[in-house]
Amino acid sequence: MAPDKPVPRILTQEDLDVFQESETYNVLMQFILDLRAAATGRPNSFRCEKSEATKSIISLLDEIQNLTGLHPPVSNEKSRFGNPAFREFYNDLEVRLPDLLRHHFPDVQEDRLVDLEAYLVESFGNSVRIDYGSGHELNFICFLLCLSRLSILKPSDHPAIVLCVFNRYIALMRVVQSQYWLEPAGSHGVWGLDDYHFLPFLFGSAQLSTHKYLRPRSIHDADVLEMYSNQYMYLEAIAFINSVKTASLRWSSPMLDDISGVKTWEKVSEGMVKMYKAEVLGKVPIMQHFLFGKILPIGELPSDRETTEEKKLTQHEGHIHSEGVWGDCCGIKVPSAIAARQLSHTGELRSVPGGSMRPIPFD
Fold it and tell me: TM spans, by residue (predicted)?
């Protein structure tokens, strides 16, 4: 009999309240804080010791990126929404991932390997909606946390996890987002920071918190971005936004523009932690998709005590929600700003031959 896969369990605010008092929540939040501490004051080029486990994860991500070359985007000239070839990439990843994980982590038992597989595949987005958001990014952290709970990753690996492994994942996701024009999950992207990610800002502000010269307002200085974006996750994220959005940060990312007025990076870093707790881990629409398995379990939740009739569940594109509560995946579809940027001034799609759609005047 195949091991049970991790499943979403949170349906209501009451369920989320119980989760936020659980051991899994505390372990997850502490893991994020530990990675933040490991990133504090350290640029991406910091020479951290890579264990065999961290090398294996980076190698695994390299192999996954190779899969994108096997599934090039299809001609999609009539739409700036997600490219259907993403589904082929995603399905191929699902098929290959069990063997890839067995190869890289041969000592992990099958019932635990199922958990690793579930979190990792979910960290690449949703294949039905062809979108990506903070909930998917959270799944990659859960994948790393599971490896930590299995003692494959050690506390001594924390610098390499955040500066090397997580950075490699973000680089891979930017390839995936750019190649397949992934749409922002939900109607508002990642709750106002940018279209896709949150944690590069949380970890990245910690990296900058001890810098002698750079200040939050430095994100508006093109020379600073050119010189330092390869060293700091926060600045790299800003540079990426600038590369795909035609409008200034004031219009394309007003929350990031507002945050740039904070006096110190330390204050920004503290605020990012509070915001992550409230706007990601504290939002039912996102956490309704959080997976619980053997490594990251949850006990009885309030909705478990209700009958099926009392729960009043709503089916939506292959998953369920409590009636009247939409998920991060269920907002109005938003076209990819990357797709808009890849339109040439003549109206032709640069990345897909044969395109002929004209750009709209805003992103």
Answer: none
